[in-house]
Design goal:
Length: about 60
């Protein structure tokens, strides 16, 4: 299990979206993240679970 925290830039590359999209999701409280000081940090495992949940919710529609 990977315990490393990812930055906004790293998570945007990982998800294939812009940093602006990541910040939009953060402002809408959609993306699982932790604020460390003034920086947002992400656990890859938490984001993977979130992505799967988003995928499953779209399949049910």
């Amino acid at each position: 299990m990977e315990d490393r925290w990812l930055s906004v830039e790293e998570i945007s590359v990982y998800l294939g979206v812009t940093k602006d999209t990541v910040y939009k999701w953060l402002s809408e409280k959609k993306l699982p993240a932790h604020k460390v000081g003034r920086l947002w940090k992400f656990k890859k495992e938490d984001v993977d679970v979130w992505v799967k949940a988003q995928s499953n919710s779209h399949k049910k529609r």
